[in-house]
Amino acid sequence: MEAAAVEGPGGLFRMFGGLRRAGGKLNGRGRGMVCHVTGNSKVKLPLPRLPMERISQSQLAAMIVLFQIGSSPLFLLASDAGADAWISVLIGMIGGLLLLLLVTLQLYRRMPEEDLFDMIERSFGKVAGSLLTAVYIVYFGYKAVRNVREFGDLMILYLLPSTPLWFILLILMVIAAYAVFQGIEVFSRVAQILLPMIVFVYIALFVALWGTELFDAHRLMPVLDSGLKKPIESALPELISFPFGEMVLFLLFWKYADRRGGTTRTTVLSYLFSGTFIVVTTIFILGSLGPLAEFSVVPLIQIVSLVQTADFIQRLDPVVALLLFGGVFMKMTFYYLGTTLLFSRLFRIGRYAALFPVGALLFAGSMAFRSYMQHIWFGFEKNLKYHFPIFQIVIPVLLLLAAMIRSRFEKNGRTPS
């Protein structure tokens, strides 16, 4: 018996219904559906595969900008450079751009239909690839844990001082789990909606700072008083580790981008926009607080608390706190989604099945830090200098070298052992 053509799920159900009326049986085996019609004759009908989620180039751009901005405005980056901290941020941005162009995007361009899991397994084999994937799950999960804890501590510090930390973190994880449950397509639309509003509010804040004369360009002087050595030392590798080298996460997301647009162009332009935004934010923090910015817990909130325009525009710090918390939430959810995708691929389970164990681990990890100051100290003194560069620079470079070697072997008609 020949299998009839079936178009769409409706046609599939109609055919199955006809087989049942003819006395046949339906048995699911593996990825195919075996249909017993009469006697010993069998017809194998593959189950219809769900189309892969897709995101537009504008949605990809919104994701990159919100991810890059994320929690960056919470801190004065490269505070060791003093008034030249903005130059350190600019140097870190250029270094991150080189890493993006020469390594991360090159991996995507060589394997546009594959994500980080496929790239690792293809380059290092199943055994070593599985171990390396597990290491990346720990890395992405740890980054998510840091964002979760930042959100909880700052919420208690500025908005809900009497609320237990565990309760805030639990509510945050439930909301983030729902966002991950909806998938990258829905989450990218949320990013696309939020981005114009967030950028508008930031621009309004910068204008307010300029208009109230809190900003003084003389606080940025003298420029490069001690030469370039100090800004470079403050930028490398710390500012590549955070925030500019974190684009390695998008090796999990680029394959979902619409192929009709230029993913590379979109990524680079979005990176430049967000990097410029971070440089401008650093300039406003330094120009408004001067040397005091180095000792502020969240300098941007401290600056805005001083803004007072006329008699009715004042005490804007809760608004900025909500803005910062929104950025932290988006970045944390990106890492939660990335961790879930890798976890589901490694253990061969669905994304929905991976949601709970990953979320439970993130919640437990976020409660492990004893205090906000311990969390900040460990991040800036240990993670940025020694740990994160391994995942953002070393392993991607090895992946790219392995891909180049494999490509050369394949051109010569051989397969690398």
Quantity of strands, as a count: 5
DSSP helix fraction = 55-70%
Helix and strand sequence: HEEEHHHHHHHHHEEHHH
- Which radius of gyration do the C-alpha atoms yield? 25 Å
Order of strands side by side in the largest beta sheet? 1-2-3
Low-confidence stretches: 1-38, 44-50
**Arithmetic mean pLDDT:** 81
Judging from the principal axes of the Cα atoms, what is the shape? globular
Please report the number of helical segments: 13
| Computed structural class | mainly alpha
How big a fraction of the residues is strand? under 5%
Largest sheet entry = 3 strands, antiparallel
Quickly list its features.
single chain; 417 residues; mainly alpha; three-stranded antiparallel beta sheet; two-stranded antiparallel sheet; 5% strand; globular; disordered N terminus
Structural features, described:
The protein is mainly alpha-helical and about 425 residues long. It is built from 13 helices and five strands. The strands form two sheets. The protein has a three-stranded antiparallel beta sheet with strand order 1-2-3, with helices on one face. A two-stranded antiparallel ribbon has the order 4-5. The two termini are about 45 Å apart. The relative contact order is 0.17.
